[in-house]
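Researcher: Quick test of sequence recovery. Tokens follow.
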């Protein structure tokens, strides 16, 4: 299993999570052009010119959600059966969606490589993606606590199968992201084993991100190289970790422990403030 970050450039780097901000400012709150390789490559190039993140963060879950929202037939098919994992299975099995996402990633990765950036794809954790897929069909969400271990493992298999579509593409890291939820609704990262196995097969480093939890709040498992969270782990943990924090006047990234530190740019931030905050942030590193 990959127990270390794939490249030294993934260690102690600064990642800028700026999709929401750039959609608001660069696209004037218009749709992200996931279905147009030329336009999505240009958009991510503008994001890079503004923030120069050490890695380009490609949000796979967001790409699927945005494109599915405009496809009522797919949403209808996702809701055809009343099983917790069925919407996600249909979503990730839809060949046209997968082709669009792959083409978008190819364009973004080409831009990243040309500018010397790492490429990190961000995928929702299985329980998060189960919830979001359900919401695409009905606007409601099942409670995470009602999901059994078997259901979570099945969802991880669906996600892993979806990742197979990225075989052969330039990817340095896969970030399994809990989003705005705590990871405490699972007992162990082993529930995501299928994702870790496919990442190992393709040589991708895996990072687990849980913005509401401390780094490594769940025990380390084989195949997860680093943990990203709101604060440092306990002193007993020696595995790589990095802090996730919102960019702001008082924001200061704590020293990361051998993994990227992540700053999230608020979508409604003023561009003048953002420029000042980023300058101050980089001066501390």
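Model:
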């Amino acid at each position: 299993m990959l127990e270390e970050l794939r490249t030294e450039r993934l260690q102690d780097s600064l990642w800028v999570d700026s999709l929401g901000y750039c959609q608001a400012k660069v696209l004037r709150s218009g749709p992200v052009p996931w279905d147009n390789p030329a336009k999505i490559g240009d958009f991510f190039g503008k994001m890079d010119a503004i923030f120069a993140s050490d890695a380009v963060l490609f949000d796979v879950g967001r790409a699927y959600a945005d494109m599915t929202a405009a496809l009522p037939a797919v949403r209808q098919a996702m809701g055809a059966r009343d099983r917790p994992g069925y919407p996600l299975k249909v979503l990730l099995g839809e060949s046209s969606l997968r082709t669009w996402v792959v083409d978008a990633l190819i364009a973004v990765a080409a831009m990243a490589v040309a500018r010397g950036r790492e490429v990190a794809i961000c995928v929702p954790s299985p329980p998060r993606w189960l919830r979001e897929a359900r919401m695409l069909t009905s606007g409601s969400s099942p409670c995470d606590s009602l999901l059994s271990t078997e259901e979570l493992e099945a969802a991880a298999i669906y996600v892993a199968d979806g990742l197979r579509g990225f075989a052969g593409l330039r990817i340095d890291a896969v970030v399994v992201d809990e989003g705005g939820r705590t990871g405490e609704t699972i007992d162990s990262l082993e529930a995501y084993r299928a994702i870790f196995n496919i990442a190992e097969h393709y040589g991708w480093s895996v990072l687990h991100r849980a913005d509401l939890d401390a780094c490594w709040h769940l025990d380390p498992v084989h195949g997860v190289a680093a943990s990203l969270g709101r604060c440092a782990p306990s002193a007993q943990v020696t595995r790589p970790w990095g802090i996730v924090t919102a960019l702001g006047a008082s924001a200061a990234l704590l020293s990361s422990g051998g993994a990227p530190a992540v700053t999230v740019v608020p979508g409604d931030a003023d561009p003048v403030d953002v420029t000042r905050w980023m300058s101050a942030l980089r001066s501390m590193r």
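Residues 8-283 form a domain with the TIM Barrel fold (CATH 3.20.20.210).
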